[in-house]
């Protein structure tokens, strides 16, 4: 089988509002982050399957004949997409020699690649190909880099199998898929996420697939039809943190002071809902300074709330102070306790302010990108 | 009539938790601040009545004969203590020449003095005396300096008339009154507060009279029976602010974002109730580090909430940061928007930390006192 070459990309994700509160049954808003992961699929004719992941120094090739031996473990329950094929995962772990313990990013990327490749091609004619992936996203920073990778893998392989069309018309530079195709991409990307993360929420792959903004509530993910594109600064403090430890810390604090903490979660919930309302208004009426004023106010309030629930960090306070000194408003995004912050830029924020702010943040030792949120999802 | 000399004192007040929220029907905790106002009453034999207020550069004497002319305006409805005698106030304003507009602190202090003096002595034998008042409290900083003054005036004059006893036994250094006497002092002090402030809540004079801690909810003031004495730093940023403007700002913010703000007020309410519970526990079980940990946590959370409701100020952020750098926890107290902050000191906070913190705060241009909260009220 020969496949057509293709180039697909998927965005990262940021949590605009509702991180942590979502664990306690409140609304969260996840947005696409226009730092993208790109995947190029190229057909080969030498019977090899290769993967190049320069961001994580991973370059591996296998003979098709080796991979074919693994297909005997494939169960044929394709409709049962909710669950991973545990037998296949086990065999793949043996195949790449990581039978026990946690996977490093290289091993988990390879495992996700092989799982989706074999699941989609294993029962038929297996193509010889090279997949090369590079990304603008830092890994392990809570920005959905693994999901963007899984989404790209799923989209490229589904195109290659013909399960979904290549939506690109000749005269177009980029193309996107219809709703049904996106759902198929998303469900395969979710398999990849499960291999990489164990028990993911499904938000990251949904944002990578649909882009724009998603409302996430009690496990249900609803893509919002229209949102404006917002300019932001994304700052990575590079302070390492454990999401698991932070989630546990919030839970402990709620258990210790429920009468104080539960209203704070309710307020965060209302922030997410108010933000969604304002963003929706911005798509159907002229955008004014007032819209931005409210968005800034919501960011400030939520940042205080996140400090209250115990997931702040001095490095994030610094991000807020440095940007506030230039009239900009920031909050942590994701797990907190370090990690990343987002800063809203107004349409009138000029490049002097922007460059100065980015310099100040970099002088603190942080990485900083000017990008946007709310942009398109997975595209060809 | 000759009066016995006496020396009385009353504490200032600070709001521990619940400022602003109390305006919206939530619990507030007011505590006595051991920066005190002292009043010395000395009998004279030259037929003069004099008042010396060195803190506000006010030194005035009247002939008893002048003051006697004013007593013809006295209504005889002594039982009607809830309302000011409007006719007397009008005549007194004419007498001291401040018939229209707002009163400065000197004029309002004189007016309160004359009102209480004439109300208590005017229908009988009027004594010739000198009242001298000095205070450790800054004026106009929201620390109840005017209430402490009114409480001292009421206590000294009520002692002089014999309406309440001089509680001091010969072998005692200081003495206090019984509940009924305190209620009488408080009601006269409230009259003084009305003259000075127009429409006071009654909290400041109640704290000045009872000391310790008061629970204030929906206009009802309940003195708490026992509270521990807590060491604090009190910092006056000296940033001027208008309580009226700040109260209006909070109201606007609640009206604009009710679903976000009302839960925050609920959380503040729970902070006050939790704090009251912890302080009560501290009086009936051994005080541990955990008690202080929770008190610190409540301070931090409330400071975030006060920022959320819009009454923070960069100067107050600085107080928090400067003290946090030494492991201490601070919040604004009172109206916010500048004004004062309180910092909790732990039993183990050593004098090096203390002196260093005070130096840092003074280097910012702030006034700073080491004092305590929860101490005794009005005493002889």
Question: Could you give the topology of this structure?
Answer:
Two copies of one chain form a homodimer.
Chain A: E1 6-17, E2 28-43, E3 48-53, E4 58-63, H1 64-70, H2 86-96, H3 105-121, E5 129-135, H4 145-161, H5 179-197, H6 203-210, E6 213-217, E7 220-223, E8 230-236, H7 243-256, H8 258-284, H9 289-308, H10 314-324, E9 329-333, E10 340-344, H11 351-363, E11 367-373
Parallel strand pairs in A: 3-5
Antiparallel strand pairs in A: 1-2, 2-5, 2-6, 3-4, 6-7, 8-10, 8-11, 9-10
Would you write up a description of this structure?
The structure is a homodimer of 380-residue chains. Chain A is α+β, with helices and mostly antiparallel strands and 380 residues long. Chain A folds into two domains: 6-224, Ribosomal Protein S5, domain 2, CATH 3.30.230; 230-373, Alpha-Beta Plaits. In chain A, 43% of the residues lie in helices and 21% in strands. The first copy, chain A, contains eleven helices and eleven strands. In chain A, β6 (213-217) and β7 form a beta hairpin. The radius of gyration of chain A is 21 Å and the shape is globular. The mean pLDDT of chain A is 91. Chain A binds chain B through residues 257, 259-261, 263-264, 266-267, 270-271, 273-274, 297-298, 300-301, 304-305, 307-308, and chain B through 257, 259-261, 263-264, 266-267, 270-271, 273-274, 297-298, 300-301, 304-305, 307-308.
